[in-house]
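Regression test case RT-17, inverse folding.

Input:
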Protein backbone atom coordinates (compact mmCIF):
# COMPACT_ATOMS: atom_id res chain seq x y z
CA UNK A 1 0.00 0.00 0.00
CA UNK A 2 1.45 3.39 -0.93
CA UNK A 3 2.83 5.36 2.02
CA UNK A 4 0.23 7.47 3.78
CA UNK A 5 -2.77 5.82 2.09
CA UNK A 6 -5.76 4.42 3.93
CA UNK A 7 -7.94 1.44 3.11
CA UNK A 8 -10.34 2.55 0.39
CA UNK A 9 -13.23 1.03 -1.48
CA UNK A 10 -12.68 0.46 -5.16
CA UNK A 11 -15.10 2.39 -7.35
CA UNK A 12 -17.24 -0.08 -9.27
CA UNK A 13 -19.44 0.71 -12.27
CA UNK A 14 -21.61 -1.20 -14.72
CA UNK A 15 -21.86 -0.74 -18.47
CA UNK A 16 -25.62 -0.15 -18.16
CA UNK A 17 -24.93 3.14 -16.32
CA UNK A 18 -23.74 4.72 -19.58
CA UNK A 19 -25.30 5.45 -22.94
CA UNK A 20 -23.61 6.15 -26.25
CA UNK A 21 -25.22 9.60 -26.41
CA UNK A 22 -24.13 10.65 -22.93
CA UNK A 23 -20.54 9.49 -23.45
CA UNK A 24 -20.26 11.15 -26.87
CA UNK A 25 -21.43 14.37 -25.24
CA UNK A 26 -18.84 14.06 -22.46
CA UNK A 27 -16.15 13.22 -24.96
CA UNK A 28 -16.88 16.41 -26.89
CA UNK A 29 -17.04 18.53 -23.76
CA UNK A 30 -13.69 17.19 -22.55
CA UNK A 31 -12.24 17.43 -26.07
CA UNK A 32 -10.68 13.97 -25.99
CA UNK A 33 -10.36 11.13 -28.48
CA UNK A 34 -10.69 7.39 -27.91
CA UNK A 35 -9.04 4.34 -29.46
CA UNK A 36 -10.13 0.70 -29.29
CA UNK A 37 -7.24 -1.75 -29.59
CA UNK A 38 -7.58 -5.47 -30.32
CA UNK A 39 -4.36 -7.48 -29.96
CA UNK A 40 -4.66 -10.58 -32.13
CA UNK A 41 -2.54 -13.61 -32.96
CA UNK A 42 -4.12 -16.24 -35.21
CA UNK A 43 -7.69 -15.18 -34.46
CA UNK A 44 -9.18 -15.30 -37.98
CA UNK A 45 -12.23 -17.18 -36.68
CA UNK A 46 -13.31 -14.57 -34.11
CA UNK A 47 -11.69 -11.20 -34.85
CA UNK A 48 -14.29 -10.06 -37.41
CA UNK A 49 -17.17 -10.33 -34.95
CA UNK A 50 -15.22 -8.40 -32.31
CA UNK A 51 -14.37 -5.62 -34.76
CA UNK A 52 -17.95 -5.45 -36.03
CA UNK A 53 -19.24 -5.04 -32.47
CA UNK A 54 -17.37 -1.74 -32.18
CA UNK A 55 -17.88 -0.30 -35.67
CA UNK A 56 -21.26 1.29 -34.71
CA UNK A 57 -19.49 3.18 -31.92
CA UNK A 58 -16.99 4.56 -34.40
CA UNK A 59 -19.89 5.63 -36.61
CA UNK A 60 -21.45 7.31 -33.56
CA UNK A 61 -18.13 9.10 -32.84
CA UNK A 62 -17.57 7.50 -29.44
CA UNK A 63 -14.54 5.70 -30.88
CA UNK A 64 -12.17 7.53 -33.18
CA UNK A 65 -10.32 4.42 -34.32
CA UNK A 66 -10.48 0.63 -34.10
CA UNK A 67 -7.00 -0.84 -34.42
CA UNK A 68 -6.11 -4.52 -34.62
CA UNK A 69 -2.49 -5.20 -33.74
CA UNK A 70 -1.50 -8.35 -35.59
CA UNK A 71 0.99 -10.13 -33.36
CA UNK A 72 2.94 -12.22 -35.86
CA UNK A 73 -0.09 -14.21 -37.03
CA UNK A 74 0.35 -17.06 -39.50
CA UNK A 75 -3.31 -17.12 -40.58
CA UNK A 76 -5.68 -14.60 -42.22
CA UNK A 77 -6.25 -12.52 -39.08
CA UNK A 78 -5.06 -9.29 -40.72
CA UNK A 79 -7.18 -9.73 -43.86
CA UNK A 80 -10.31 -10.70 -41.94
CA UNK A 81 -9.91 -7.76 -39.54
CA UNK A 82 -9.41 -5.31 -42.39
CA UNK A 83 -12.49 -6.59 -44.18
CA UNK A 84 -14.50 -6.16 -40.97
CA UNK A 85 -13.59 -2.48 -40.81
CA UNK A 86 -10.52 -2.24 -38.58
CA UNK A 87 -7.21 -0.56 -39.20
CA UNK A 88 -4.59 -3.31 -39.00
CA UNK A 89 -1.01 -2.71 -37.93
CA UNK A 90 1.68 -5.38 -37.68
CA UNK A 91 3.90 -5.40 -34.62
CA UNK A 92 7.04 -5.48 -36.74
CA UNK A 93 6.06 -2.29 -38.54
CA UNK A 94 5.66 -0.28 -35.33
CA UNK A 95 8.94 1.00 -33.93
CA UNK A 96 10.91 -1.16 -36.41
CA UNK A 97 14.20 -0.27 -34.74
CA UNK A 98 13.13 -2.60 -31.91
CA UNK A 99 12.75 -6.19 -33.11
CA UNK A 100 9.25 -7.50 -32.44
CA UNK A 101 8.75 -10.56 -30.27
CA UNK A 102 5.62 -12.70 -29.78
CA UNK A 103 3.45 -11.79 -26.81
CA UNK A 104 0.32 -9.99 -25.78
CA UNK A 105 2.15 -7.28 -23.86
CA UNK A 106 4.35 -6.61 -26.86
CA UNK A 107 1.26 -5.97 -28.99
CA UNK A 108 -0.25 -3.63 -26.38
CA UNK A 109 3.00 -1.68 -25.97
CA UNK A 110 3.31 -1.15 -29.71
CA UNK A 111 -0.38 -0.23 -29.88
CA UNK A 112 0.40 2.88 -27.84
CA UNK A 113 2.84 3.90 -30.57
CA UNK A 114 0.38 3.09 -33.36
CA UNK A 115 -2.74 4.84 -32.02
CA UNK A 116 -3.72 8.42 -31.29
CA UNK A 117 -6.55 8.37 -28.73
CA UNK A 118 -6.30 10.24 -25.45
CA UNK A 119 -8.23 7.30 -23.99
CA UNK A 120 -7.15 3.80 -24.98
CA UNK A 121 -9.31 0.71 -24.48
CA UNK A 122 -8.13 -2.87 -25.01
CA UNK A 123 -10.23 -5.91 -25.86
CA UNK A 124 -9.16 -9.47 -26.66
CA UNK A 125 -9.94 -10.74 -30.15
CA UNK A 126 -11.12 -14.25 -29.20
CA UNK A 127 -14.35 -13.38 -27.36
CA UNK A 128 -17.48 -15.14 -28.58
CA UNK A 129 -20.13 -12.77 -27.18
CA UNK A 130 -18.54 -9.32 -27.23
CA UNK A 131 -20.82 -6.32 -27.68
CA UNK A 132 -20.53 -2.55 -27.99
CA UNK A 133 -21.42 -2.30 -24.30
CA UNK A 134 -17.82 -3.35 -23.52
CA UNK A 135 -16.64 0.04 -24.75
CA UNK A 136 -19.34 1.84 -22.76
CA UNK A 137 -18.27 0.13 -19.55
CA UNK A 138 -14.57 0.80 -20.09
CA UNK A 139 -14.74 4.40 -21.34
CA UNK A 140 -17.61 5.52 -19.09
CA UNK A 141 -15.60 5.76 -15.84
CA UNK A 142 -12.79 7.62 -17.62
CA UNK A 143 -15.19 10.18 -19.09
CA UNK A 144 -17.28 10.68 -15.94
CA UNK A 145 -14.51 10.50 -13.31
CA UNK A 146 -11.55 12.81 -14.05
CA UNK A 147 -9.41 11.09 -11.40
CA UNK A 148 -9.68 7.68 -13.08
CA UNK A 149 -6.48 6.59 -14.81
CA UNK A 150 -7.23 2.87 -15.23
CA UNK A 151 -10.48 0.90 -15.59
CA UNK A 152 -10.55 -2.89 -15.45
CA UNK A 153 -13.47 -4.88 -16.81
CA UNK A 154 -15.07 -7.87 -15.12
CA UNK A 155 -17.72 -10.33 -16.23
CA UNK A 156 -19.15 -13.82 -15.94
CA UNK A 157 -16.77 -16.19 -17.73
CA UNK A 158 -18.36 -19.37 -19.14
CA UNK A 159 -15.91 -21.65 -20.95
CA UNK A 160 -17.00 -23.76 -23.90
CA UNK A 161 -15.80 -27.31 -24.45
CA UNK A 162 -15.11 -28.89 -27.83
CA UNK A 163 -18.82 -29.68 -28.20
CA UNK A 164 -19.77 -26.04 -27.70
CA UNK A 165 -21.33 -26.65 -24.29
CA UNK A 166 -20.40 -24.72 -21.15
CA UNK A 167 -17.99 -26.88 -19.15
CA UNK A 168 -16.90 -24.56 -16.36
CA UNK A 169 -16.11 -20.96 -15.64
CA UNK A 170 -12.84 -19.17 -16.29
CA UNK A 171 -10.43 -17.30 -14.08
CA UNK A 172 -8.21 -20.16 -12.95
CA UNK A 173 -4.97 -18.19 -13.20
CA UNK A 174 -6.66 -15.35 -11.32
CA UNK A 175 -7.89 -17.53 -8.48
CA UNK A 176 -4.77 -19.69 -8.15
CA UNK A 177 -2.07 -17.08 -8.75
CA UNK A 178 -3.09 -13.42 -8.99
CA UNK A 179 -5.69 -13.27 -6.22
CA UNK A 180 -3.54 -15.01 -3.58
CA UNK A 181 -0.65 -12.69 -4.42
CA UNK A 182 -2.78 -9.54 -4.25
CA UNK A 183 -4.53 -10.62 -1.05
CA UNK A 184 -1.20 -11.19 0.66
CA UNK A 185 0.86 -8.29 -0.68
CA UNK A 186 -1.52 -5.68 -2.11
CA UNK A 187 -4.81 -6.37 -0.28
CA UNK A 188 -6.59 -3.28 -1.59
CA UNK A 189 -6.19 -4.63 -5.11
CA UNK A 190 -7.91 -7.89 -4.15
CA UNK A 191 -11.15 -5.91 -4.57
CA UNK A 192 -10.77 -6.27 -8.34
CA UNK A 193 -13.09 -9.05 -9.45
CA UNK A 194 -10.84 -9.95 -12.38
CA UNK A 195 -7.44 -8.31 -12.02
CA UNK A 196 -6.13 -10.14 -15.10
CA UNK A 197 -9.03 -9.19 -17.39
CA UNK A 198 -7.98 -8.54 -20.97
CA UNK A 199 -10.61 -5.83 -21.31
CA UNK A 200 -9.40 -2.61 -19.73
CA UNK A 201 -8.81 1.06 -20.52
CA UNK A 202 -6.67 3.94 -19.42
CA UNK A 203 -5.57 7.47 -20.14
CA UNK A 204 -2.76 7.59 -22.67
CA UNK A 205 -0.63 9.94 -20.60
CA UNK A 206 -0.67 7.44 -17.75
CA UNK A 207 -0.21 4.29 -19.86
CA UNK A 208 2.78 5.80 -21.64
CA UNK A 209 4.48 6.25 -18.26
CA UNK A 210 4.45 2.50 -17.50
CA UNK A 211 6.77 -0.35 -18.53
CA UNK A 212 5.02 -3.19 -20.39
CA UNK A 213 6.04 -6.85 -20.03
CA UNK A 214 5.96 -8.46 -23.47
CA UNK A 215 3.95 -11.51 -22.42
CA UNK A 216 0.97 -12.36 -20.22
CA UNK A 217 2.41 -10.45 -17.29
CA UNK A 218 1.20 -7.18 -18.81
CA UNK A 219 -2.15 -7.01 -17.00
CA UNK A 220 -0.77 -7.60 -13.50
CA UNK A 221 2.09 -5.18 -14.22
CA UNK A 222 -0.23 -2.36 -15.29
CA UNK A 223 -2.43 -3.00 -12.25
CA UNK A 224 0.42 -2.95 -9.74
CA UNK A 225 2.29 -0.07 -11.36
CA UNK A 226 -0.86 2.05 -11.58
CA UNK A 227 -1.54 1.42 -7.90
CA UNK A 228 2.01 2.45 -7.04
CA UNK A 229 1.65 5.62 -9.11
CA UNK A 230 -1.85 6.87 -8.31
CA UNK A 231 -3.30 4.62 -5.61
CA UNK A 232 -6.76 3.11 -5.56
CA UNK A 233 -8.32 6.57 -5.99
CA UNK A 234 -7.11 6.58 -9.60
CA UNK A 235 -8.52 3.14 -10.40
CA UNK A 236 -11.94 1.64 -11.09
CA UNK A 237 -13.63 -1.50 -12.35
CA UNK A 238 -16.69 -1.97 -14.53
CA UNK A 239 -19.11 -4.86 -14.98
CA UNK A 240 -19.22 -5.79 -18.68
CA UNK A 241 -21.76 -8.62 -18.39
CA UNK A 242 -20.38 -11.90 -19.74
CA UNK A 243 -17.36 -13.07 -21.70
CA UNK A 244 -17.42 -16.49 -23.34
CA UNK A 245 -14.28 -18.09 -24.73
CA UNK A 246 -12.81 -21.52 -25.41
CA UNK A 247 -10.81 -23.36 -22.80
CA UNK A 248 -7.04 -23.57 -22.67
CA UNK A 249 -4.96 -26.52 -21.53
CA UNK A 250 -3.60 -26.83 -18.03
CA UNK A 251 -0.08 -26.52 -19.43
CA UNK A 252 -0.93 -23.26 -21.25
CA UNK A 253 -2.45 -21.83 -18.08
CA UNK A 254 0.67 -22.84 -16.18
CA UNK A 255 2.79 -20.75 -18.53
CA UNK A 256 0.47 -17.78 -17.99
CA UNK A 257 0.61 -18.25 -14.22
CA UNK A 258 4.41 -18.33 -14.25
CA UNK A 259 4.59 -15.09 -16.22
CA UNK A 260 2.08 -13.41 -13.90
CA UNK A 261 3.96 -14.56 -10.81
CA UNK A 262 7.36 -13.48 -12.13
CA UNK A 263 6.00 -10.06 -13.06
CA UNK A 264 4.27 -9.56 -9.73
CA UNK A 265 7.29 -10.63 -7.67
CA UNK A 266 9.48 -8.31 -9.72
CA UNK A 267 7.30 -5.46 -8.36
CA UNK A 268 8.36 -6.58 -4.88
CA UNK A 269 12.02 -6.43 -5.87
CA UNK A 270 12.38 -10.19 -6.34
CA UNK A 271 13.96 -11.01 -9.70
CA UNK A 272 13.54 -14.46 -11.29
CA UNK A 273 16.62 -16.68 -11.09
CA UNK A 274 15.39 -18.88 -13.94
CA UNK A 275 13.49 -18.35 -17.18
CA UNK A 276 12.47 -21.94 -17.96
CA UNK A 277 9.15 -23.41 -16.84
CA UNK A 278 9.42 -27.18 -16.47
CA UNK A 279 6.18 -29.14 -16.83
CA UNK A 280 5.31 -32.77 -17.46
CA UNK A 281 2.77 -34.45 -19.72
CA UNK A 282 -0.15 -35.91 -17.77
CA UNK A 283 -0.09 -38.98 -20.05
CA UNK A 284 3.49 -40.19 -20.16
CA UNK A 285 5.35 -37.71 -17.95
CA UNK A 286 7.31 -36.38 -20.91
CA UNK A 287 9.11 -33.22 -19.87
CA UNK A 288 7.72 -30.01 -21.39
CA UNK A 289 10.04 -27.01 -21.13
CA UNK A 290 8.90 -23.47 -21.95
CA UNK A 291 11.16 -20.43 -22.09
CA UNK A 292 9.24 -17.67 -20.35
CA UNK A 293 9.11 -14.21 -21.99
CA UNK A 294 10.20 -12.07 -19.04
CA UNK A 295 11.37 -9.10 -21.13
CA UNK A 296 9.79 -5.73 -20.26
CA UNK A 297 9.55 -2.80 -22.66
CA UNK A 298 10.37 0.66 -21.32
CA UNK A 299 7.66 3.30 -20.94
CA UNK A 300 6.58 4.65 -24.32
CA UNK A 301 7.16 8.13 -22.95
CA UNK A 302 10.91 7.40 -22.85
CA UNK A 303 10.90 6.60 -26.57
CA UNK A 304 8.95 9.72 -27.45
CA UNK A 305 11.42 11.78 -25.45
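Golden output:
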Amino acid sequence: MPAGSVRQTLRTFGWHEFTVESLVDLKRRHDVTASMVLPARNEEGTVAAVVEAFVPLRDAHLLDEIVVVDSLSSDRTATVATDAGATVVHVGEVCPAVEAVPGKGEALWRALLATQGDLVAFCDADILDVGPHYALGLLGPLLTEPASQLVKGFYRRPILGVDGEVEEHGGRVTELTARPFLSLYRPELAQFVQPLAGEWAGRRAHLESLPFPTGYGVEIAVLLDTYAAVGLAGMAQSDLGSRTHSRQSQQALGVMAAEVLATALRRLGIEPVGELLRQFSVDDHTELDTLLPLLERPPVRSLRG
